[in-house]
Input
Amino acid sequence: MHPRLIAYALGGIALLVGLSMSTAAIWAAIDGSADLMPLIYSSAVSCAVGAGLLLVKPKGRFSRKDGFAIVGLGWLVAASLGALPFYLSGAFVSYTDAFFESASGFTTTGATVLSNIEGLPRGLLFWRSLTHWLGGMGIIVLSLAVFSILNTGMSLYRAEVPGFAHERILPRLRQTALTLWIIYAALSLTQMVALRIAGLSFFDSLVHTFGTVATGGFSSRNLSIEAFDSPAVEIIIVVFMVLAGLNFALYWQIVQRKGIRAILANAEARLYLFILAVASLVVTISLVSSLDMPLGSAIRRSVFQVVSINTTTGYSSTDFDAWPALAKGVLLLLMFVGACTGSTGGAIKVGRIMLLLGHVRRHLQQTVRPRLVMRTRVGDSVVEDSVVSDVLTFFFIYMALFCFGAFVVMADGEDLVTSLSASAACIGNVGPGLGSVGPALNYAEMSGAVKWILSGLMVAGRLELLAVVLLFTPAFWRK
Output
């Protein structure tokens, strides 16, 4: 491991956070609001930290271990610095709450401790949502596109990009990172324009675009999307949540003249869309049969919430915690499923679930016919046993951390439903859960210790576990 190289890379991340923070100060300056100076001070501190670390002359050859260290520590640095405006403005009662909100933003979780979101000035609201957009494609991937020192190997890219399949769509790593960000920005611009046409203000369009394309879920309204009561806005957000949940490498294939066939030919994308359709149907039936909800309204509510939860966005168009047990059970299950690998979504992801099902099928057949030679497949692709082993390890660690988080919340005095959904929502980067952390409530009442642990689960979930878990492994820090 090379500390000077790691420090230099972390400096780049801190500088990017500081420069990004200064854009939020523009809104505060326009409004003449009290959050202007906290944003300027925080930006200055972040830039100073970044500039100081960039003065460190990097030494050594970039390694896989350095990559994991930079990613794990980089997200902690981003969340720590990103919390400064929240804390210095006095909008949050403690740095713990400010860090929770910042971590929730950068990890695109969307969990909040705020009860009166509309009471925040626009500078802080913009920064809160901008953390989503930066974290969606990944501050580390942005760093790859900007800082040449991080273009020395695949280790950092593999450690940061969500999913088990890391596709380098162009020969050079920096080109790949830059192309992903261009696609990401193009989707964002398209949605922002669509929301403006649908009647949202420029500010609300920006905030909800950041929350949608990044699958984050922070809103500028206390009631989230329900506040607009607009079918047009809901349809636009649903469409872009679905698009954000697809593997971004598929968009490059579409650009390369493969068209929509690139999506239809992808087994993971097909299963992802199938899950959305079936889950929406089940929830619709539950709402109609149990609540006597009109069919049109049931379809509207169910499709929005199923897509929002499955893509781990976390927006709400209604208080789904008041829904029947079957509908809530489907949403709770979807918190574990997540979107496609290589998307901005969180949770386990459809590709991993396909691989696990394929492995189970292979194991069952070989149990009956021991001499049968089979390979695990995902769609038409054969998956190496080493990848299967990685996914099995990921699944075990994921479920172990989920159980740990649930028991911690239970120990804090919460009920079973709240505890299970809070842990699932944080490690899966979903945001709202059920019970005391449902869409009409938040995480404010939980103790400081629980908030720190849930913040850790958010970061671990966003970084596919390994980059964070390795930091707590003694062997990782040995030479």
The beta strands are 377-378, 381-382. The mean pLDDT is 87.
